[in-house]
Write a structure and sequence with these properties.
Largest sheet: 2 strands, antiparallel
Structural class: alpha+beta
Strand content: 5-15%
Radius of gyration: 12 Å
Strand order of the largest sheet: 1-2
Number of strands: 2
Helix content: 40-55%
């Protein structure tokens, strides 16, 4: 979670953008669904605690960023 927050401090990220800080291996099509679920669980934990904010762009893509203050 600390590594996620460090990455999000660099700017808004999509779920797939956070894979490198969560997983040591390359995420291929065979495990994409599982990796996405795990990444979402971590991001949603941070959202629920007010440490991260999620917004959607005009295409419906979710972007996660650190909460202000």
């Amino acid at each position: 979670l600390d590594r996620l927050e460090v990455l999000l401090a660099e700017g808004p990220q999509r779920v797939v953008d956070v894979f490198p800080v969560l997983f040591a291996r390359k995420i291929d099509d065979d495990i994409l669904f599982l990796a996405t679920g795990e990444a979402l669980a971590n991001l949603n934990w941070l959202v629920e605690r007010g440490r991260v904010v999620v917004t959607e762009d005009e295409q419906g893509v979710a972007w996660y960023r650190l909460a202000d203050g």
